[in-house]
């Protein structure tokens, strides 16, 4: 047995640290309370002194002890402990309670800001879907041998870290087909891969990638569109500059995604699905979960720009993702939410980690933020009310 993480490096230790940091941090509303206390205290001291003078001059002239007693009474009743405790107590309770639901806020400011979110942008693969697609279709061009085709494609895709590539490799392995030797490999983010396998030039990816290499694909496009309309992701493959076939994979939608989208919409929040996948597949998945706004064929570097566009229209945007390519968008959004089943990079860039990987946690996080802020305002109101009444 090998222990890969021990002590403070374990997942549990990191969760505890995140919760403790959040509970010890100051939300913006706490700074407001501190500023109010800064004004409140000198005013109360002034009122106490005026009370002392009124007592010693008019109420009980010349009697020092009763005047001192009422001065002390005013100071004691108006001690602003409640103002100082109103926010941190709620932040501690709110972030601790959220952690019980698998929602980790990295700081009090994030717990406060989440309540104002009006637009949620969700990544598709690994967020709305399980992110574990399976190989469903292999369509060969004329004169192509399936074993040779899959051997070359599988070898090239084995070098890629993309979930779709893993699905292709696993599907080929399940067919009992061996893989060729890779002499060269290059991933082209947002487009596909190119490789040299057993001396053969292999290119796998999108329509745009095929167009860049001048590969004729017009004849296969109707079949490809049909697969995409059924929610599958189809990838074209060329060998030595000639179209050789396509492979299609399907990623299943999480059971809770539709319910989660519906909950957010009922809360008055706009839900947008953003993906690098093609338009037809994205629309099919969007329709399945009830998302009306779909932004498809977005390159990894373009996700952050899409978030900025929404922010430029005055939207308060939460970005929800799980992958390395989501990290810039998570950091750009007003609130970044990382799915806990995703990459460490995404979780590091995000403000909130949703440990359970369930989209219902998005609505739970917003509700928790709203309830915590309502509690803080109640605390501040009653602190002021009884201090004022006491004075």
TrEMBL record:
Gene Ontology CC, one term: endomembrane system
Q: Which UniProt keywords apply?
A: ATP-binding, Cell membrane, Copper, Copper transport, Ion transport, Membrane, Metal-binding, Nucleotide-binding, Phosphoprotein, Translocase, Transmembrane, Transmembrane helix, Transport
The answer to whether the entry has keyword Ion transport is: yes
Q: What EC number(s) are associated with this protein in UniProt?
A: 7.2.2.8
Origin, by domain of life?
Bacteria
Coiled coil regions, renumbered to chain: none
- Family recorded in the similarity comment: Belongs to the cation transport ATPase (P-type) (TC 3.A.3) family. Type IB subfamily.
Name listed for the protein in its UniProt record: P-type Cu(+) transporter
Origin organism is: Lysinibacillus xylanilyticus
